[in-house]
């Protein structure tokens, strides 16, 4: 009756491989489906039955997406906020981290307490909104950039990285009469690419994915982001009345429906993340470990 | 270092002060950099903290920031109002149910995945599965909701249509627009999005286990399951406790596995509202859509206070029960 250990192991391995394979499929297939749906004629997708490859291949969805000023504009705003937000966030966070990485800095204990307290406690969204409103950031492009410029989590990570840089490099530059800004840009930043890359990737992904600020801190249609537009379509199609409108809008332009536009925008939103994914991967395992130790 | 000179005479003290001042002047550029950062913290972190005062006041948005200090005190009026809100019971129930369901189902998922991945001998397959599994972590919740729509919606949802075609169901299930499915949807999508990400930390914990323990167990005749039960799981205990404490501390926000707010807000609609409205989305709507700032701040504050209590008590219990804790 007793099965041999070998047989048992084989059974055990098979179960694990099958379960993992199913998990992998559930993670991967949604992305794949969205991709093929974006290359399939919108009105054809609505008929159902598109599972493995596009049935009626077309680039119309992408064409309409780029021609529709609403989507196109949202795409540009998202790209602009990602680039500007990441660059300025990187600059301020690393500059402050550089100053705080000096072990002999006066009052550094006080500075650190102020930073750590701000990491753990927040006033909540409502008072935050009041602050944004009073300093005139609402309904401006700057609301995407300025509030997130100083990232306290990465501030601490950058400080510990900068502290590992040998002091002699700075000292010899000091001897030559270089100011702090020169040292920061010419000596510190060039040797800090690993930490700068990690920060840039995470800040960039955060900027790219952010939706709340576009939904609530901005009213101008010109400032809406890609995530906001997607949200708008989803909200519309979930209310029962508009579902009919969606079905009916499967019309005019080359079978492009609001659903096919939506999946297209999703692909546009996912592809950049997949492009930086190999780099993200290289750095984030280290990042999450650091975070968990500090957290 | 040079500050360690004994402070005997007033002259020495004066010297110390001037030395400090000298050092400060030498560092003035660095202090300017830090000062710049402090201004950001003051404006975007500390001013909102003072803003909590508005929960106890009759605040009107037209008075700006000063209004937080100048408006009239009303004590606990808004807290009282929330408790008597006709939606109070529903909202609190939804928040608690959603949070606990996530701890029960979404918290163990990455532990199981890590253990399964650890049993895989084929490194290429293991790495591939892992790489795919944390991809969703980097995708916006908006896109996750969009994907769910593409799969589950009653009219264009692929899964629904396939099930109807296969004759397994008579008519499409209203998964996205029915109060019956929201909790399952939220827990399921949280697992889908965050399981792989948290697997990283549990796999790291497994890597830290001494391999000779496994060898010894094998010689003693322990099967695969027995080795998982008696070596892998105990070896992960410390990490599991720390992550559990963190999860329970942030449980009302959705724990570490997916933000309750983003899910409830983005999956929420007028039809599934009876199960999808939670404290945070309610505070948000009351505050930003209806403009009742003091009321919303009071609701928000209740949740924050409960969260702080939860993290300290779960940490305390973890310390007592298992000896490992967060702080």
UniProtKB/TrEMBL annotation, chain A:
Main location: membrane
Species of the source: Paenibacillus faecis
Protein name: Carbohydrate ABC transporter permease
Subcellular locations according to the entry: Cell membrane
Membrane topology according to the record: Multi-pass membrane protein
ABC transmembrane type-1 domain residues: 75-272
One biological process term in Gene Ontology: transmembrane transport
Cellular compartments per GO CC: plasma membrane
Entry-linked SUPFAM superfamilies: MetI-like
TrEMBL record, chain B:
Localization per record: Cell membrane; Membrane
Main localization of the protein described in the UniProt heading: membrane
Keywords of this entry: Membrane, Transmembrane, Transmembrane helix, Transport
Domain ABC transmembrane type-1: 92-314
A single BP term in Gene Ontology: transmembrane transport
PROSITE patterns: ABC_TM1
GO cellular component, one term: plasma membrane
Positions of transmembrane segments: 29-56, 96-120, 132-152, 195-217, 238-257, 293-318
Superkingdom, natural source: Bacteria
Membrane topology note: Multi-pass membrane protein
PANTHER family membership: POLYGALACTURONAN_RHAMNOGALACTURONAN TRANSPORT SYSTEM PERMEASE PROTEIN YTEP, PROTEIN LPLB
Annotated family: Belongs to the binding-protein-dependent transport system permease family.
Name of this chain's protein: Sugar ABC transporter permease
Source species: Paenibacillus faecis
